[in-house]
Amino acid sequence: MKADLIALLESGDICSKRWIWEQYDYTVRTNTIDGPGSDAAIVRIKENGTSIAISLDGNARFCVLDPREGTKLIVAECCRNLSTAGALPVAATNNLNFGNPERPEIMAQIVASIEGMGEACEFFETPITGGNVSLYNETLGDAIFPTPVMGIVGLMKTATPTPIHFQHPDRAVILLGGFGKCDKLQFGGTQYAKVILNALWGLPPALDMDYEKRVHQSIREIVAEGLAESAHDLSDGGFSVTLAEACFGKAGMGAHVHVPTAMRQEIQLFHEGPSRILLSTTQAENV
């Protein structure tokens, strides 16, 4: 499992993109509060105490298995990223990347993806304000995976952002939303399946949108009340990758955690079920 974790952290989808984004101007004058590398970027609006949080997400692995459910999971992750930063999601845009729509199976992917996006955006109250498409993406007749990308913005009070990294020793580590559920069928769309097993199969993780929304509400309250010293949502690589990323801060701290054994070890550690956020706190009971 240790070797698998290292391989995942080195993989192209998960490894740090700092080498790329630090070459560009990622600040908005003097108003960028939190930039790349965080769950959501945050830009303040001067003189009114409000900031805009921005999250951009896509997951072609989930969408090639089920375009409708995969797109719903992308919307949920965007909103979860914003909520982890303490922001209320309010509006969305999209970029729909697909193959040749003249082929019935590709058009079916597009329709299913848009239907899933509409259902999720309505539920999470993030109306679509605009978007664009990129079609006919093929090489020698082979289409790309269906790759919808969502951009969602949220509003929050201007404040010092909650970091994703652990800040101090001797804190409680809480997995908000729990370890979730996953079986072998739902494990086939994970980064573990792609990188370690070199395969994709089955279905994306099951999304309970009501439960997901309640996790969002909970973390926003926790952040607003100053109960979280750090907070980081679970996505690519699951629990183990998120825990490792939380340890990569300047404080250089690790963590001791107890992982239940309800599932196979690799599934428990690396499944990518939604509705989960890892946080550290001195006030576990209040959380």
Q: Can you describe what's shown?
A:
The protein is an alpha+beta fold and 287 residues long. It has helices spanning 2-10, 18-21, 60-65, 67-84, 104-123, 184-187, 191-195, 209-224, 238-246, 265-270, and strands spanning 32-34, 41-45, 50-58, 88-97, 128-134, 138-139, 142-143, 147-157, 172-176, 230-233, 277-281. The strands form three sheets. It has a six-stranded mixed β-sheet with strand order 1-2-3-8-4-5. It has a three-stranded antiparallel β-sheet with strand order 9-11-10, sandwiched between helices. A hairpin with a 4-residue loop joins strand 2 (41-45) and strand 3 (50-58). Helix 4 (67-84) runs parallel beside helix 5 (104-123) and helix 4 (67-84) runs parallel beside helix 8. The protein is globular, with a radius of gyration of 19 Å.
Quick overview:
This protein has helices at residues 2-10, 18-21, 60-65, 67-84, 104-123, 184-187, 191-195, 209-224, 238-246, 265-270, and strands at residues 32-34, 41-45, 50-58, 88-97, 128-134, 138-139, 142-143, 147-157, 172-176, 230-233, 277-281. It is an alpha+beta fold and 287 residues long. The strands form three sheets. The protein has a six-stranded mixed sheet with strand order 1-2-3-8-4-5. It has a three-stranded antiparallel sheet with strand order 9-11-10, sandwiched between helices.
Helices and strands: which structural class?
alpha+beta
Total of helices? 10
Major sheet summary line: 6 strands, mixed
How would you spell out the order of helices and strands? Answer: HHEEEHHEHEEEEEHHHEHHE
Topology summary:
Layout: H1 2-10, H2 18-21, E1 32-34, E2 41-45, E3 50-58, H3 60-65, H4 67-84, E4 88-97, H5 104-123, E5 128-134, E6 138-139, E7 142-143, E8 147-157, E9 172-176, H6 184-187, H7 191-195, H8 209-224, E10 230-233, H9 238-246, H10 265-270, E11 277-281
Parallel strand pairs: 4-5
Antiparallel strand pairs: 1-2, 2-3, 3-8, 4-8, 6-7, 9-11, 10-11
Helix pairs in contact: 4-5, 4-8
